[in-house]
Amino acid sequence: MCGIVGYLGPQDPKKVIIEGLKKLEYRGYDSAGIAVLHDGKTKRIRAEGKLKQLEDKVLNENFNGNLGIGHTRWATHGPAVEKNAHPHQVGEISIVHNGIIENYLEIKKELIERGAHISSDTDSELVAHLINEEIQVTKDLLLAVQKTLSKLIGAFSVVVLWEKSPNELVAFKDGPPLIVGINEKSSEYFVVSDVQAALNYTKNFVYLEDREIVHIKKEGIKYYSALGAPLKKQVITLDWTSSQVEKMGFKHYMLKEIYEQPHAVASALQPHINMQTLEVNLNNVGFENPVEEVLKKIERVMFVACGTSFYAANVAKYLIEQLARIPVDIDIASEFRYRKPMIPANTLLVTVSQSGETADTLAAIRMAKEKGALTLSITNVMRSSIDREAHGHLYMNSGVEVGVASTKAFTSTLALVNLLAVQIAKARGVLNKDAEQTCVKNLLAVPSQLEMVLAFDKYFSEAAKKLKEFKGFLYLGRGVSYPIALEGALKLKELAYMHAEGYAAGEMKHGPLALIDSKMAIVVVAPTDELIDKTISNLQEAKARGGKIISIGSGENLALKSMSEYYLSIPEANWMTNPIISVVPLQLMAYHMADSLGFDVDQPRNLAKSVTVE
Ligand code: F6R
Predict the structure, then answer these.
(1) Residue range 352-364, pLDDT digits in tens
(2) Contact by Cβ (8 Å): 158, 148
(3) What's the domain count of the chain?
(4) How many A from CA of 359 to the centre of ligand 1?
(5) Within a domain: residue 388?
(6) How far are the Cα atoms of 555, 557, 579 from residue 572, in angstroms, in the given order?
(7) 353 Cα to the center of ligand 1, angstroms
(8) pLDDT at 240 over 80
């Protein structure tokens, strides 16, 4: 979490940094700040709240230096007040920091013993103190940083500015991402948490690995290990454009991203489907050996993820177990990494992460690799930390997802796990060619089915208006629709700040029925599949106790419609593809509810998009 921008170049650093921070605000929006050199001195401006507050504050400020750093914060240590906002300045040193310094109490104690005056509640300020102490002795920023890095334990990325050196930045990381942007032609250099912050200026990037240091000077860039050994780094040229990160006329990024789902799903599927033979081919995921050979040896699949990505993994369990007849375990990454999991031989461990940077998921994949598992990452951000760690790679290909609440990455992942289920089933010899082609045809129909759902947005928006009257929400589903109910409840919680719980419909009589009264809405995900009659019976029990039902069903399901206050129709699909379609009304209802309540849909309170701390 937290967004970092460092800039060295001929343009007005204030402009470049604020523009970059706007692209990173999804990473944190509690407070923000910049430090830019002016007349050889550091000028630091910080503001509590969203970036807009900072923008207003710096509007009439002028800086004549070529160098600056900026930060948008998601609070870890200390509340979101100005004194805790970054950059932190101690003497001649200013820093911006993303992550957590785990040994901060120890460092703080030592600093206080040496007479330091600590002015914030953060762990970050301590890094500035340490570098400032070192620079007094070394008079060399790179050396001061190297010495400081050896004292830090935790997960962090840091950019450092020294006011005595107006053409130099040093940055380092151990955990959260830090990427160097280079435009040789215009002599511009960037250090950013996400390439989006610099895409307007360059397409050439270098990804720092853990415990690497970058030394940026007007004359050029050098890379070092934590111990000072020079490193050669590869420059990667990205083909993304910054327009992919614009709202394109939509009121919010989230709405744009919901509407991008037909295209996103098609883009996820396209690289892996042979349109002539209608076969699935995951040979391009990057395993050393042919994919069928690899998957034939697999005896267990384990999925590890967080949040919405974890719910996608839940769907994967249903699909892969039923289609490929192989055991599938699913785990929340923060639980997995500390419960000393057993990872038997011949396990395929799959991580799902839109950002590819989620700290717990990253730790899980590293652990699984150490224990000998074959790993496959499903990510949206190519070359993200998790992607770089994995043996095999599946890409969501959703395009940049800016809205903090994940939407298109979820549906693209569901498309990919359909493909994975088919490929594993083929490798195990339990899926014949006809059945494979049927699966592929069903998948190819999804983008136009999604278009149809989106065309009915006005019904979801009307339903959302009515739903505001309820005090609580139970989201229900059975089979593959159960994880969709969980995802629907999460969307409502995080966007509209309303209490919502997802339940397996069959569990109602084991407790949640007690909650039912006229103020409790029951949102049921009930597309037609082999469990639909059982779901309807569960709803009868809820209705008999006064429950108000809002249902999502396939086509005209009269039985479901007759018992519902609102019936929302989605196109008929197959059990494996139903989840991709049935989640969209839930996304839209949560979106419209939050928007009509006046909440910030793209940046819900207390959250951040890329969770790089555990
Ligand atoms: C909810 C949401 C989060 C993320 C979770 C994992 O809408 O977006 O629950 O799914 O933080 O993030 P990734 O997928 O980047 O690992």
Answers:
(1) 999 999 999 999 9
(2) no
(3) 3
(4) 11
(5) yes
(6) 6, 10, 11
(7) 7
(8) no
